[in-house]
Specification:
- By secondary structure, the chain is mostly helical.
- It has three domains: 7-106, Orthogonal Bundle (Fumarase C, Chain B, domain 1); 115-198 and 230-353, Fumarase C, Chain A, domain 2 (Up-down Bundle), CATH 1.20.200; 360-462, Fumarase/aspartase (C-terminal domain) (Ribonucleotide Reductase Protein R1, domain 1), CATH 1.10.40.30.
- 61% of the residues lie in helices and 5% in strands.
- It is built from 19 helices and six strands.
- It has helices spanning 16-22, 25-28, 32-48, 54-72, 85-97, 110-146, 166-190, 210-216, 226-231, 234-260, 288-311, 326-348, 354-360, 368-376, 382-399, 408-414, 422-425, 428-434, 443-462; strands at 151-156, 159-165, 193-194, 221-222, 268-269, 351-352.
- The protein has a two-stranded antiparallel sheet. A two-stranded parallel ribbon has the order 3-4. It has a two-stranded antiparallel sheet with strand order 5-6.
- A hairpin with a 2-residue loop joins strand 1 and strand 2 (159-165).
């Protein structure tokens, strides 16, 4: 006769290989705070509904608090024979307080229990991750404010394209992260419904107060359908999808740091604290931390695919496949947390090289669009102006000159509208300042964007 909580139906013990294969406490053990929190809310509600006696409720709550202290103190060892975190805690409770501990599970199934635990854990993880994002945003704002005067090439196809401010580029990173933050906030809000009280799939005959447990656990409301409550994991898909998008953004930021720190670019010097050397080449200073961010973020995309593939073929309601949802969720949140922390440190300690950025503006004809815009502002159709500017670039290449070095007569031979004022448009600072459209790199627009972002961060800190 098996001693499992479901053992009444069975005469044989679970095969040892099957027991090891199905045990999950090594992964879901980190749900213990949520499991205890959910159990306390559940048992108190049972007492309020006169389903359990006041004495039973007091014993269970006191026992759970002792187990909490035991886990925090490292005294309670997880037992794989008890399968999962839920049965480890319940077994420890029964051992501690006796028969009253066996009444905790009244009106509850592990199906609604684990669904509740995962919503509680993921909600908190979303909130922690948004705080991590805000920390990186603070770094980006600080760096951008300190480097408003630094001009650099903007790129398309990794080719020098147009001049921008370094602060404008850092703010582009910030905008991506702001959207990532918003997606996590939305995901946390949508998942904030309580499955507790749905039991295995069809609710329970006990007169539970699901509103009370939802309130006690900080949920907005109970879930409306008991079958959906124990079956759905789309809240995990949504959260990990948001993390995967964030991971892609972090990887792009990391890639630019790797490029910019190379000798070929030389735009940024990473601090010793976030770089490593070579075991054979003494001169090397490698941007290993951004490279590892670039590599590790792939795990998060993999976690999303893992969940999608796991869920796509499952009938309602609960299936044991869902035991496997935790590892990818935990890994996704852990990885994004680490990547955000590393990038915050790497960027805050980095030094940007104004001279190297300025030197990069002198080659690549980043002012060619200014020539076309100059003509277009004087009534020349832009397509014609673009063609003329392209011909001037070709002439400059052939002569080994920059556009500002070409003689005026070359300009006038290309188009009669040119006069000496075109050369003023070719100044990089002027070119950037002329781009004062909303969202552009002109100083005033960058300072507006910085002030807005700083204000949002301050408001969130005060909330």
């Amino acid at each position: 006769m098996t001693d499992k909580p479901w053992g009444g139906r069975f005469q044989e013990e679970l095969d040892a290989i099957a027991a090891r294969f199905s045990a999950s406490v090594d992964v879901d053990g980190r749900l213990w705070p949520q499991d205890i929190e959910g159990s306390i809310a559940h048992v108190r509600m049972l007492g309020e509904r006169n389903i359990l006696s006041e004495d039973d409720v007091e014993q269970v709550v006191a026992g759970l608090e002792r187990i909490r202290a035991s886990i925090e103190g490292g005294e309670l060892a997880w037992d794989p024979e008890r399968e999962d975190v839920h049965m480890n805690i319940e077994s420890a409770l029964i051992e501690a307080i006796g028969e009253a501990g066996g009444r905790l599970h009244t009106g509850r199934s592990r199906n609604d229990q684990v669904a509740t635990d995962m919503r509680l854990w993921t909600r908190q993880a979303c909130q922690s991750t948004t705080a991590d994002i805000d920390a990186l945003l603070e770094v980006l704002v600080d760096k951008a404010e300190a480097h408003v005067d630094f001009l650099m090439p903007g790129y398309t196809h990794l080719q020098r394209a147009q001049p921008v401010r370094l602060a404008h580029h850092l703010l582009a990173w910030a905008e991506m992260l702001e959207r990532d933050r918003g997606r996590l906030v939305d995901a946390a809000a949508r998942m904030n419904e309580s499955p507790l009280g749905s039991a295995a799939l069809a609710g329970t005959t006990f007169p539970l107060d699901r509103d009370a447990t939802a309130r006690a656990l900080g949920f907005d409301r109970p879930m409306r359908n008991s079958l959906d409550a124990v079956s759905s994991r789309d809240f995990l898909l949504e959260a990990v999808s948001a993390l995967a998008i964030c991971a892609v953004h972090l990887s792009r930021i990391a890639e630019e740091l790797v490029l910019w720190s190379s000798q070929e670019f030389g735009f940024v010097q990473m601090s010793d604290a976030f770089t490593t050397g070579s075991s054979i080449m003494p001169q090397k200073k490698n941007p290993d931390m951004p490279e590892l961010v670039r590599g590790k973020t792939g795990r998060v995309v993999g976690s999303l695919v893992n969940l999608l593939v796991m869920l796509k073929g499952l009938p309602l309601a609960y299936n044991r496949d869902l035991q496997e949802d935790k590892a990818p969720v935990f890994e996704a949140f852990d990885t994004v947390h680490d990547c955000l922390a590393v990038l915050s440190g790497a960027i805050s300690s980095a030094t940007f090289d104004r001279d190297r950025m300025a030197a990069a503006l002198k080659e690549g004809f980043l002012d060619a669009t200014e020539v076309a815009d100059w003509l277009a502002s004087r009534g020349v159709p832009f397509r014609e102006a673009h063609h003329v500017a392209g011909k001037l670039v070709r002439q400059a290449v052939q002569r080994g000159m920059t556009l500002s070095e070409l003689p005026l007569e070359v300009y006038q031979a290309a188009h009669h509208a040119f006069d000496e004022s075109v050369f003023r448009a070719l100044d990089m600072e002027t070119a950037v300042e002329r781009r004062s459209v909303l969202g552009g790199p002109a100083r005033a627009r960058v300072q507006e964007a910085l002030a807005e972002l700083r204000g949002r961060l301050q408001a969130r800190r005060g909330a």
